[in-house]
Amino acid sequence: MLRRLLCLLLVLATPASADWRDEIIYFVMVDRFADGDPSNNEGVDLDNPLAFHGGDLKGLTERLDYIADLGATAIWLTPVNQQGPSIEVAEGTFQPHHGYWADDFNAIDPRYGTEDDLRALVVAAHERGIKVLLDVVYNHVGYDASWTVTHPNWLRQGAECGGDAITMCLSGLPDLKTERFDVRSAILDAHIGLAERTGIDGFRLDTYKHIEPDFWAAHRVFTRLRLGEDFFLLGEIWDGDKYLAKAPFEADTLDGIFDFTFRDHVQKLLTGIEDPERFARYFTNRYEVEGDHVLAPFLSNHDMPMLLAMMRGDTAKLRQAFALLMFAEGPPVISWGEEQGRRGKAWPLNREDMDWTGGDVALAEDVKVLIALRRSEADMRGGAVETIYAANDLLILRRGAITLALNLSDTPVPVVQGLGKRVLYGGDPMKLAPSGAILFAHD
Ligand SMILES: [Ca+2]
Questions:
Q1: pTM over 0.70
Q2: What's the CA gap between 71 and 19, in Å, rounded?
Q3: How many angstroms does the Cα of residue 113 sit away from the middle of ligand 1?
Q4: Which end of the chain is more exposed for a tag (fewer CB within 10 A), N or C?
């Protein structure tokens, strides 16, 4: 009996991140995904890439079946707090469509919807087995936000802005004095309160490295106390990799960080800048993390050009990238529309609206197959990656009983048949197409 109880306790004590290693995360910029309520389209200008485009929580909820059908098991959505004023930039009027320029952390921006809409989204997502990660900002408020008038002593502005990562005013935004107890109370209560009331499963934490570690330690204590042990914390640390993950993982202030190096190496491999041997060395060593913490690989995010744009629209190479993404350790992250060939160039053109006419349907079908394999083949999620061959424009990697081969040349190559009995993806192994990818199983 005691033994059974101990086993049960061990199961209950499993960290949140252990489950998250198996998730497929779909990233949605709320304003750019789906417009479910035209009545809240204040200031919408579809011709201006810097303006609001009308997407909202209702639209996202209505499209959850699309995300479930793709095979994603979690969504990460951009912040939904009430936003501050627009600003004028060289490119035109810049509205806070992205959600990172908050005015009021205690209110939802009506352009995204209401708190009830967020709650309804979470319920509908959970009904489909999809978890919800909400993006929250603790580092700054929007330009000319209300607190610049009502609580100026809570903010660093102008001459007060420091020169280090913690006290700098990122992009000139008013920097929250997160070292102050009253500021901490206000912002922790706001974000954690919203999470309590809406039942979300975790936070994506913006600008992690711009806030002092002891704030994040307090944050972990409060999220554990009020939201439970399983509440997942995924931090954005620019250039994130296993080295930058070390401090927050050792301090256990985060469950995971985004792996920025993954995108960088995949892009270099597929554009011929990095040879397969060097890539294989990186790929087999990228995932050395403390305990059950995770590094989340991705191909593109909203702060960089889409990978497809960097590969001049070559969708064969994007298929190779997706094959690597689904073969990589850590929960893969897919940006909205990337699966159907969204190819936004540099900012501000990298945040296009989701194409609900389907985009590149054949590509999306292949991505679905790769996602389904990731979910059905346990070896594609668990265990280390090893190199079988990496030279002469050919890369062959193995995870458990699954082998992935990529042809990096522009001529067909035969791949040794002994690599596996069953072809899971990618056609004829005796004639692996230029920029082709193939997955085998041994059983
Ligand atoms: Ca709308």
A1: yes
A2: 16
A3: 8
A4: N
